[in-house]
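User: Let's play a game. I give you a shape written as tokens, and you guess the letters that built it. Ready? Here's round one.
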């Protein structure tokens, strides 16, 4: 992926996240919020036919309010579908529409269309509920990682992938390791030796299975997780059975009771803390560097205005934005042509402004208001600056929001701004 494409994706993902966050905040008083997932290869005319059918079936809904609301939502979706040709755009499209509670017994009609999500929509879904169905989109937006999974005991093993949030079982094996009970007539020594040999063979087989699957993709791999009961997983890891590069990328071993396919899911659950830590690694490194520059260097900037200025100069290497920043930027232009900007909580209405340079008053309705992150990312896009959203789930990430206004930048060179 080129740097430019990466930027497009950052921005698009941010837009998607923002819409999803809004959609998740809505409730319908009845089962009246419609979500439709349309894959790329679905004919738009088929979707229209489906929506028309649902519209006529909705006439059976007993509650008059719900009936009207559902039919209004479907009409609104049908209107939107007119804008497409025969098929939806690349990766498909998701349509949301419904009458949401606006407080005081009032409702607001909300319609949102998200074209070309970051991953292809797999199957057509029509969903009508008291909330919008956003989970499939959220999963697509989750930070994608690629992890190798191995679960084993002395009888059975499974290997597979963790791709983003999705577990994909691939191969399994079962062993011929005899139980601990030896048959009569066998010498204890010989039995123990044969048993150890069988265990060793099985570990080799499991490692071979994992190597076949993981080694060719070792450069994309974010790590390997190993699960099973003790002492099996310890023996397996201590014995260096895996390819040395895989062995080096083992993130941890975890107690897992089952070693069938379901064990792969248990392994991901058991490793959730390690995985979350891993996901935050890039954020942590960026914040470490930011604080280091702040104390001993000059190649850091923070706060909306200084960061914006550095961005415009093309001096920002990496733009750091707090994941929890919810602010707009309001640009006031007074009658004497002075531009001034102010940050404002997203939920607050725009106040009037007094120009600090000439004292002229600028009315709120003449001000230009925009999402602060959109504003910065647009400049970052033009300058080829990478944007990183920083989690607030660790101390220095939280400080970015609480002490630095939620916006900072690592610079390519010192600018003195
Ligand atoms: Zn002025």
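Assistant: Ready! My guess for every position:
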């Amino acid at each position: 992926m080129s740097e430019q494409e990466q930027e497009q994706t950052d921005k698009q993902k941010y837009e998607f996240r923002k819409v999803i966050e809004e959609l998740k905040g809505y409730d319908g008083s009845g089962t009246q919020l419609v979500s439709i997932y349309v894959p790329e290869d679905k004919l738009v005319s088929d979707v229209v036919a489906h929506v028309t059918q649902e519209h006529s079936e909705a006439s059976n809904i007993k509650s008059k309010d719900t009936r009207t609301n559902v039919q209004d939502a479907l009409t609104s979706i049908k209107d939107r579908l007119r804008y497409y040709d025969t098929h939806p755009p690349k990766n498909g499209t998701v349509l949301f529409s419904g009458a949401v509670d606006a407080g005081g017994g009032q409702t607001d009609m909300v319609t949102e269309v998200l074209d070309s999500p970051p991953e292809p929509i797999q199957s057509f879904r029509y969903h009508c509920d008291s909330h919008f169905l956003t989970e499939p989109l959220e999963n697509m937006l989750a930070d994608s990682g690629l992890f190798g999974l191995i679960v084993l005991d002395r009888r059975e093993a499974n290997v597979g992938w963790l791709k983003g949030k999705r577990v994909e079982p691939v191969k399994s094996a079962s062993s011929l390791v005899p139980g601990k009970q030896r048959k009569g007539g066998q010498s204890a020594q010989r039995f123990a030796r044969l048993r150890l040999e069988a265990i060793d063979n099985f570990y080799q087989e499991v490692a071979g299975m994992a190597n076949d699957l993981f080694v060719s993709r070792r450069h994309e791999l974010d790590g390997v997780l190993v699960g099973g009961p003790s002492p099996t997983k310890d023996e397996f890891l201590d014995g260096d059975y895996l390819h040395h590069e895989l062995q080096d990328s083992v993130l941890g071993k975890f107690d897992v009771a089952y070693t069938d396919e379901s064990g792969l899911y248990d392994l991901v659950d058991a490793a959730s803390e390690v995985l979350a830590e891993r996901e935050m690694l890039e954020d942590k490194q960026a914040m470490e560097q930011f604080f280091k520059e702040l104390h001993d260097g000059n190649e850091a900037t923070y706060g909306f205005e200084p960061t914006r200025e550095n961005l415009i100069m093309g001096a920002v290497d990496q733009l750091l934005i707090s994941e929890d920043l919810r602010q707009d930027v309001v640009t006031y232009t007074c009658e004497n042509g002075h531009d001034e900007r102010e940050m404002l909580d997203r939920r607050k209405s725009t106040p009037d402004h007094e120009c600090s340079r000439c004292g002229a008053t600028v009315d709120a309705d003449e001000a230009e208001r925009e999402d602060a992150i959109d504003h910065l990312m647009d400049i970052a896009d033009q300058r080829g600056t990478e944007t990183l959203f920083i989690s607030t789930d660790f101390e220095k990430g939280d400080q970015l929001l609480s002490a630095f206004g939620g916006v900072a930048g690592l610079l390519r060179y010192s600018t003195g701004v």
